[in-house]
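Attaching the record inline, Q. Sequence:
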Amino acid sequence: YPSGNLAIIVVREKKRLICIVQEDKPNNAEIRAVFKSNGRSTCYYPNGAVWINMSIQGGQYLDQEGNRVRRWMWPNSIMSSGPHVPLSPIFISLNRHMGVRILGQDKVTVSFLAMGQQAKFNVGTKVQVSDVSQLPPPTWLGEDELLLLAFRVRILWLFDRLRGCLNFPSNEQWDKIKPPAYLITQTLKILQLCATSDISDELRSSVRAIVNA
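Structure, as predicted:
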């Protein structure tokens, strides 16, 4: 910063890089943002509350009371094979010198402006998921959302089944119709989330019953 206080720190943790944005203070500076090369990043309000939280699946924008204002999914998220909520460009000012612009998973920029000069740091990363077992559950996925996700996939299954019945009225053809690959993938991902999420056994059984019905 113009004050001489450290603004940005980049450290290496094993094979990952971490970019830390600090407040303009000489001692005990609060952390305003953390960006990790594994796709997990968080920006904070001045009071320490989470402002933006991003993961390999997508992200969410919160107000200072912790209420969700916006949420989006990256193209490689759990809903990537079907309809998903896209990201609208986001720009926030961490302080009068620091800003964060989010245009995509690999297009996250930290801007530093001082004394008429500007520096930009690209802290975005393109994380690809090739194996369902490598997909970590979203940290913000609640029980209601998990149920809604399960019902959504089940409804898509029913719609696909209905299209098959309309295209092939004969009962003999119904069992030969294979579901789309994206529905199979989404079902496997939901079951993986169900197995790894911190939810009750009753809810876990309900989700499995919904998607396997």
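The longest helix spans residues 143-167. Helices lie at 143-167, 171-174, 181-196, 201-212.

More tomorrow.
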